[in-house]
Amino acid sequence: MLYDVHFSARGTTESYAEAFVKAFGKDTLSFNWLRKTERKALSLSSDDTLLFSMPVYGGYIPHVCEELISLLNGDDTPAVIVAVYGNRHYDNALIEMKDLLSRRGFIVIAAAAVVAEHSIFPTVATGRPTEGDLGEMRSFASSIKPPYKEVSVPGNPDWDSSTFHGTPFHPTADDRCRYCLVCVSSCPTGAIDPDDPKATDTSLCISCGACIRLCPYNARLHRAEAYEDARKGFEERCGKRRENEFFL
């Protein structure tokens, strides 16, 4: 059995995971940790395989997902890790995932760092993953064959995810909000109060963008005064196209 565990707020990480699943050719159970109902304790055997796909925030996987890894238990279980990043860099995300899963009884046999449209500045890597990106993911999945062995991944072995304190930009809603509360139910950290859904608790918000994507009235956006200046600067620094990387 292939267990597909991912966190996908904007749909891009899920797109990469789906491409992998289709090409890997095993019966699959999928879980999107964005949804609290899909955060289940899983015990995998050495005959199973784990696909673990995560977005990259500030060079690491989301803190909420780092904590949720305690739900996963392996028994020398092969694992494939995928870091999905917004064209800046994936920094220590791969080595973080590998170390955390190794502690839970998994053996990381393959890894990928793939590009998706940036979740806060969508003018960077706009429209990715493309069909070409997804084709590369399918080829990667097809190339993973036994006998398996542990793979090396880039990153600082002394990584410390606590150094990332989040972004200063958090979405809020305008007068288009109709209090449908879709944003409330979709927020993975409970940062949107059902009594005041136009606002956002910035101490809880991880800027994943789920509320922006799912709002049926397009009411939720980033509106901080400094946002446009930051966007322009980010485009200048990180606008050059990056290619996907695969490790076997």
Report on the architecture of this protein.
This protein is α/β, with parallel strands linked by helices and 248 residues long. 25% of the residues lie in helices and 20% in strands. The chain contains 7 helices and 10 strands. The chain has helices at residues 12-24, 63-68, 93-102, 131-142, 182-186, 210-214, 227-238; strands at 2-6, 28-32, 42-43, 49-55, 72-73, 77-85, 106-115, 171-173, 220-222, 245-247. The protein has a 6-stranded mixed beta sheet, with helices on both faces. A two-stranded parallel ribbon has the order 3-5. A two-stranded antiparallel ribbon has the order 8-9. Helix 3 links the parallel strand 6 (77-85) and strand 7 (106-115). The longest helix is centred in the N-terminal third of the chain and has 13 residues, at 12-24. The relative contact order is 0.17.
Briefly characterize the structure.
By secondary structure, the protein is an alpha/beta fold. The protein contains seven helices and ten strands. Helix 1 packs parallel to helix 4 (131-142).
